[in-house]
From TrEMBL:
Family annotation (Pfam families): Peptidase_M20
InterPro entries: Amidase_Cbmase (IPR010158), Bact_exopeptidase_dim_dom (IPR036264), Peptidase_M20 (IPR002933)
Membership in a protein family: Belongs to the peptidase M20 family.
Organism: Nocardioides hankookensis
Keywords, ordered alphabetically: Hydrolase
Name of the protein this chain belongs to: Allantoate amidohydrolase
Length: 394
């Protein structure tokens, strides 16, 4: 017998978990994430699901029933650095449990049903968010992706063979279940929500360059210190995002030569920006860049900005969202926007009708060891996903 939801969750809990912070380090193609990938294949085999993979590491376990356009569900198993337990794996475990629940109910779908795992969704290793789904849909070419490098300089092409993908051929609908990464459902008192849209978002590399010098002998007025330019730019990003009601975060920096007693020669910082519209995103990044460049002129430094990963706004089908949300015990599920990126957004942009289910997060915290979801709400999510797959596969 395949494992039930709680058993599966218990099995995954220790994999890649830090003994100090309690957070997870499940970076793509590293040991913890590969252990989870092997676990997924074993769980598919226990359920008699036919496993299919592509040249990029994406995997689908197929319940080969019926015919016609397939219904695909699933999520990802990788994490951000020191991330939470639920972001990604909840959607995979819930999908397997939903298949079990459908079978226990005697459901025989009229269309094939698949459970998917997309690789490198977080972009925590190779810097491009939703990399696996981008490659599977053709939104990103292997020729460009193979040159992406991790923090140690290892190119993606040295880690995975690459080539092509036919995993999504014949997929008619995609449904992704995910832990909510905010407090909307908590404030509404609802265990389950349905996505209406994904805000446009991007990652931008800011390279600040100056002149290395001695921290003690160099007068303050004689310095070309890129750290000062970066600091002002980070403050400007915070202010501009607050004023506009948007999101801007500098969460990662690298300093050269990174010495305590030296004025740095270079500061590289990565901006994560998210806005309610594509125009608002472009305007916000332009304004942050303008203010950073003006400060660079005063500091005697220079600034260049490179967009490393940008995803446009995604509006999920209102009709599909309304259908998924409607007519449940206790009333319709709320339909809400999300500011977080997901593989569902990539598949939707590729023309595959897509829906998302969210499971309430009582802390409202995500990308952190404090990310949470109760077992009771997770089981409601499993039932909600089974109901949705049943509807769509009929």
């Amino acid at each position: 017998m395949p494992d039930d939801f709680e058993r599966m969750w218990t099995d995954l809990a220790p994999v890649g978990r830090s003994a100090t912070s309690g957070g997870y380090f499940r970076q793509p193609f590293a040991s913890a994430e590969r252990e989870l990938a092997a676990w997924f294949v074993e769980q598919c085999a226990a359920r008699g699901l036919r496993v299919e993979s592509d040249d990029f590491g994406n995997v689908v376990g197929w319940w080969d029933v019926g015919d016609g356009p397939a219904v695909l569900t699933g999520s990802h198993l990788d994490s951000v650095l020191d991330g939470g337990a639920y972001d990604g794996p909840l959607g995979v475990v819930a999908a397997l449990a939903a298949v079990d629940l459908m079978r226990s109910r005697g459901v025989v779908p009229n269309r094939p049903v698949g459970v998917s795992v997309f690789v490198e969704e977080e972009g925590s290793r190779f810097g491009l968010a939703c990399l696996g789904s981008r490659l599977a849909t053709g939104a990103t070419s292997w020729e460009s992706a193979r040159e992406l490098r991790d923090r140690d300089g290892v190119p993606l092409g040295d880690v995975v063979g690459g080539g092509s993908s036919t995993l999504l051929d014949g997929v008619g609908t995609f449904v992704e279940l995910h832990v909510e990464q905010g407090r909307d459902l908590v404030d509404r008192g609802a265990a389950i929500g349905v996505a209406s849209e994904i805000w446009p978002h991007g990652r931008y590399r800011f390279d600040f360059t100056g002149s290395a010098n001695h921290a003690g002998t160099t007068r303050m007025e004689d310095r070309q210190d890129p750290m000062l330019t970066y600091a002002m730019t980070a403050l400007a990003a915070n202010k501009q995002a607050r004023v506009a009601g948007q999101r801007a975060t500098f969460g990662r920096i690298a300093v050269e030569p990174n010495g305590t007693n030296a004025v740095p020669s270079r500061v590289t910082a990565w901006l994560d920006a998210r806005c309610s519209t594509d125009d608002a995103l472009a305007s916000l990044v332009d304004e942050i860049t303008r203010q950073g460049s003006e400060r660079a002129g005063r500091d005697g430094t220079s600034l260049s900005v490179t967009a490393e990963s940008v995803s446009g706004s995604v509006a999920f089908s209102p009709a599909l969202a309304a259908d998924v949300a409607a007519d449940h015990e206790g009333g319709d599920w709320p339909v809400i926007p999300t500011q977080a990126g997901h593989d569902a957004g990539i598949l939707s942009a590729a023309g595959i009708p897509t829906a998302m289910l969210f499971v309430r997060n009582p802390t409202g915290i995500s990308h952190s060891p404090l990310e949470e979801a109760s077992v009771a709400d997770c089981l409601v999510g499993v039932s909600a996903l089974a109901d949705t797959l049943d509807r769509l596969a009929r």
